[in-house]
Amino acid sequence: MSKRSENYLRLIKIAIDTNNLKKFSGSSVLVTGGTGLIGTSIVDIFIYLNEKLNKNIDIFVASRNYEHLVKRFGDVCEKEYFHFVKYDATKKINFNFQVDYIIQGASNANPNLYIKKPVETLMGNIFGLNNILDYALRQKTKRVVYISSSEVYGNKPEGRNKLINEEDFGLVDKLNPRFSYTNGKRAAENLCIDYAYEYGIESVIIRPGHIYSSNISKGDNRAATDFLRCAYEDRTIEMYSSGNQLRSYCHAIDCASAIIFSLINGKNCQAYNVSNKDSVVTIRQFAKEVARIGQVNLICGKVNDSNGMEYSALDSSKLENLGWHAVVNLREGIKEAIADLN
């Protein structure tokens, strides 16, 4: 196994058992964005299935840098079933191997870079997915799962008080480079459907909520990540907003299990929210829980609520009705994230 804590592996086992992921065996899968927040947990689950349950899965992990892969997964990178694939979502691909399934998770997910590199952000989603779908068509891949985002829903009208389902959509400023990520995800989702209807490529779309875990990268500057890092480093958490916005927090292991579950059980051309219904809290409540578990102080600075989505709380009942369930509650998830932070 890769170098992960016993608690992290325990959560993986619970997710596998609860969502019947053991039936995923004897297949091959390509995971792009394999060293990202979600991609890492996806690969970890596949590794666990091989190492602990002998499921004989060929794992192809696409990443820009092999050294990053080794740093993250250690000696597992030398296993016969583990294959490094050099990959850049903004460039053409020429893969010479065939896989049964593809999970397209490669995407810039750093809000700071949305404005600094809006072209790369937009094209990484559209052009990157287009290349993957062309590859899937040539190689007769069984199914592609595209990891989208809750940001596709845009901003909701004031006073909204119900969870967002897959048919809801709000407003997005098309002339603001900040929304290169949002518009790229929206266009990529439509591209999945287009390939399915025109060429018969099976695809499923996953829309995660606010994902967190110990796999956060150093460049990740989202609020939840900053709270966790402060707790890990024994620093005071400082908030610069009211924190009243409601969010769907979901541990990366739960998100990863939902994605793998959808490879087998998701319906073609459907989108599914991924959220833990027991972890729908405000930003302030999340920060308070991080401060309590991490035993650090929480203070509020000058309030600035002018940026970000007003409301982002997802309803995951559509996926739950297929049999998937989140297993990591908020307290347990935050505890893992702080203790095992990379």
What does this structure look like?
The chain has eleven helices and twelve strands. It is of the alpha/beta class and 342 residues long. It has one domain: Rossmann fold, CATH 3.40.50. The protein has a seven-stranded parallel beta sheet with strand order 3-2-1-4-5-6-10, with helices on both faces. Strands 7-9-11 form a three-stranded mixed beta sheet. The two termini are 16 Å apart. The model has no long low-confidence stretch (mean pLDDT 91). Residues 29-274 form the NAD-dependent epimerase/dehydratase domain. It comes from Limosilactobacillus avistercoris.
Structure at a glance:
40% of the residues lie in helices and 16% in strands. It contains 11 helices and 12 strands.
Number of strands: 12
Strand order of the largest sheet: 3-2-1-4-5-6-10
User: What is the CA-CA span between the terminal residues?
Assistant: 16 Å
Q: Tell me the overall shape.
A: globular
Number of spatially distinct domains: 1
Characteristic terms for this protein:
single chain, 342 residues, alpha/beta, Rossmann fold, seven-stranded parallel beta sheet, 11 helices
Topology:
Blueprint: H1 6-18, E1 28-32, H2 37-53, E2 58-63, H3 66-73, E3 82-86, E4 101-104, H4 111-116, H5 118-139, E5 143-147, H6 180-199, E6 203-208, E7 210-212, H7 223-232, E8 237-239, E9 246-251, H8 252-265, E10 270-274, E11 280-282, H9 283-294, E12 298-300, H10 317-320, H11 330-339
Parallel strand pairs: 1-2, 1-4, 2-3, 4-5, 5-6, 6-10, 7-9, 8-12
Antiparallel strand pairs: 9-11
Helix pairs in contact: 2-8, 5-6, 7-9, 7-11, 9-11
